[in-house]
Write a structure and sequence with these properties.
Distance between the termini: 33 Å
Shape: globular
Protein name: Enoyl-CoA hydratase/isomerase domain-containing protein
Pfam families: ECH_2
Keywords: Hydrolase
Order of helices and strands: EEEHEEHHEEHEEHHEHEHHHHHHHHH
Number of helices: 16
Number of strands: 11
GO molecular function: 3-hydroxyisobutyryl-CoA hydrolase activity
């Protein structure tokens, strides 16, 4: 059975309990918009009903580059009006529902994050049962660069990384490769992209690959290699990220790791601080994915009302200089009362329960 979701943004082929699915916006690097979210929700229901195992990847050069903010905003008008704010909030809600639907699918979900895997697209990738990266994978959470906060449940996952390195990834938006993903636990398997067609063919013909234990043994024995290059978070860097406040972290990083500090300070100070607070709430309270997504919804609702979002998008898509003039300019100038307001519950209901 071949299934084209209603908006043609996700294509599934289902046979003998296996669904092979592809995001289908290759000309946009599989950027996520409302129609794709609708197709994900539609397709997960199909997988639940007809597929024991689902393999999801992206058509073209990307798994998914994340939310299609250029599609949502009419950047050329250079204004942050009510309709644009509403569109971002609605896209954020539907994307979070799509992430949760994928994470809770009854079908065993394998995500092949080959190529660009960013933002909400990364959320789709990392909440699956098995996560595959390749030598082509470029993973990042760049939201703070444009004045929003990493979401899609990535903050929850980042809070579990060794030595608080997920805090740095979320604040800086630094890109990492498949090797680092595997050593940080973001990917379960690092497999050469040339093997992907063969893997898909094996799943189609080897009907024993319909349970988690068999799949894990198959991938480890047949396709995973030990990497010559290891990646470990330097102990001193982890110590800096474990300091008791964001200003103290940044002060120590300025002195000891100035290159990494500069990446963070170039971003929206307000959203960097909001992500820091959400990271700490995840780490200290051990939120469920559903509760984390609700928290992210509350944060997004507040930050899209701020001028940083339009400033970041203008700099990226219109001026193409990426020299945004965020306000406040520094982390030390951020008003903590405004940060705490970001965590006030959203009036819209994200889930039925």
């Amino acid at each position: 059975m071949r299934h084209f979701a209603s908006n043609n943004c996700l294509i599934s082929k289902i046979k003998d309990g296996l669904a092979t699915a592809h995001f289908n916006r290759p000309e946009k690097l599989n950027a996520v918009h409302l129609e794709m979210c609708e197709d994900i929700l539609e397709s997960t229901k199909l997988w639940n009903e007809h597929a024991i195992v689902t393999i999801l990847q992206g058509n073209g050069r990307a798994f998914s580059v994340g939310g299609d903010l250029k599609h949502v905003f009419n950047i050329s008008q250079r204004k942050n009006d009510e309709s644009n704010v509403s569109k971002v909030g609605h896209l954020g809600d539907e994307a979070k529902k799509a992430v949760y639907a994928m994470s809770s699918t009854k079908s065993i979900l394998l995500t092949i994050m080959n190529g660009y895997t960013m933002g909400i697209g990364a959320g789709f990738g990392i909440h699956s049962h098995f996560r595959i990266a390749t030598e082509n994978t470029i993973f990042a959470m760049p939201e703070c660069k444009v004045g929003i906060v990493p979401d899609g449940g990535c903050g929850l996952y980042f809070s579990k990384m060794p030595q608080n390195f997920g805090l740095y990834l979320g604040m800086s938006g630094e890109q990492i490769d498949g090797i680092k993903m595997a050593h940080l636990g973001i990917a379960d398997f690092l497999i050469e992209s040339s093997c992907l067609p063969e893997i898909e063919e094996e799943f189609e013909h080897a009907h024993f690959l319909r349970d988690k234990e068999s799949i894990e043994e198959f991938l480890l024995q047949r396709y995973c290699k030990k990497n010559k290059t290891e990646f470990n978070v330097p102990k001193q860097f982890g110590n800096v990220l474990s300091l008791q406040s964001l200003p103290s972290i940044m002060s120590a990083m300025d002195a000891q790791f100035p290159q990494q500090a500069a990446l963070i300070r170039k971003n929206s100070s307000f959203t960097v601080y909001a992500f820091y607070e959400s990271f700490m709430k995840n780490k200290n309270s051990k939120l469920s994915l559903k509760d984390n997504l609700k928290m992210e919804q509350s944060i997004l609702d507040k930050v899209v009302m701020r001028p940083d979002l339009v400033e970041g998008l203008k700099s990226l898509f219109v001026d193409r200089s990426y020299i945004p003039k965020f306000n406040p300019r520094t982390i030390e100038e951020v008003n903590l009362e405004e940060i705490q307001k970001c965590f006030e519950p959203c009036s819209r209901k994200l889930f039925d329960d």
